[in-house]
Amino acid sequence: MTEKTPVRSKTAKLADFMCFSIYSANLAYSRVYKPVLDALGLTYPQYITIISLWEEDQQTVKGLSEKLFLESSTMTPMLKRLEAMGYLTRTRDSEDERNVRISLTDAGRSLREKGFGFGEITVKASGLTPEEFPILQKAIARLRDNLVKASKGEL
């Protein structure tokens, strides 16, 4: 009995791997986003932290870390830098002092106005139509969620 090897494994090239497509798309996306982030004076993790706080203020460090897929060892120094920049405050939760709550300052909220219009830059750079862009974004989010579940043995 002969073992059949899938044709793909015999001819697979780097460009055939979805993981590489996602990885390299992320790098390319970062290059497009860099001027936007430079204009705001933020790194990408700082930017998504601010966006998350625009959506829901008073989040705990733990909750924010989980939402952003960042380790707390990454979050704490980043939050300290954002606090030093005047964009947020960190305070102990009055009901449970083990938790630290993160809140935007007025300066942190005003970044939102500076950031308006930047979404159009990335949509245009993607080459996708305004209708295609959210469809792809939802598909990527579903892929991510499924991969997270699979990594936890839930699929």
UniProtKB/TrEMBL annotation:
It is found in: Cytoplasm. Residues 15-145 form the HTH marR-type domain. One of its GO terms (biological process) is response to stress. Pfam families: Staph_reg_Sar_Rot. One of its GO terms (molecular function) is DNA binding. The keyword Protein biosynthesis does not apply. Keywords: Cytoplasm, DNA-binding, Transcription, Transcription regulation. It comes from the Bacteria. One of its GO terms (cellular component) is cytoplasm. InterPro entries: HTH_MarR-typ, MarR/SlyA-like, Transc_reg_Sar_Rot_HTH, WH-like_DNA-bd_sf, WH_DNA-bd_sf. This is DNA-binding MarR family transcriptional regulator. It comes from Phyllobacterium myrsinacearum.
